Amino acid sequence: MNASLRYACLVAEEADELLQLQSQAPFEKIIGVVDCTVQDEGDILRNLQGVQEYFYVSGIAVLPSFRRRKVGTALLKACEVLALEWRQRFMALRAYEDDSSARGLYAKAGYRVVSRDPGWVTWVGRRRRVLMIKDLPVHDAQIQQQ
């Protein structure tokens, strides 16, 4: 894989035509972002079959006033399109175990919980996370090129 195809930051912007007519700086239209990269961390790979790397989604954020308006769903879908373009078979992300809103969003997008942080992480003041995986469709052309 080309090294330049290992990281991307995807941005969601407000599509309101009135905003486009105003003289706002481009960053003022940003309503959500997500970082994604191809990784090969062993702790995640042991949950995946037949691959040496995976597409990792991190740092997803949506402005509070735009939550529950499908912005997160659109960002996740854009990640999936990119993952398929980069010929990845799995997408992975981590979510806080007690964040039911985020976990609900990810579950609706097709992610499933495959593991949890060990219980002792709370002893050191950290929030417990879950690892969620989404299997991507594998096309014959992809299999032949791998």
UniProtKB/TrEMBL annotation:
GO terms for cellular component: NatA complex. This is N-acetyltransferase domain-containing protein. It holds the Pfam family Acetyltransf_1. GO terms for molecular function: N-acetyltransferase activity. PANTHER family: GCN5-RELATED N-ACETYLTRANSFERASE 10, CHLOROPLASTIC, N-ALPHA-ACETYLTRANSFERASE. GO terms for biological process: mitotic sister chromatid cohesion. CDD domains: NAT_SF (cd04301). InterPro entries: Acyl_CoA_acyltransferase, GNAT_dom, N-term/lysine_N-AcTrnsfr. SUPFAM superfamilies: Acyl-CoA N-acyltransferases (Nat) (SSF55729). Residues 1-137 form the N-acetyltransferase domain.
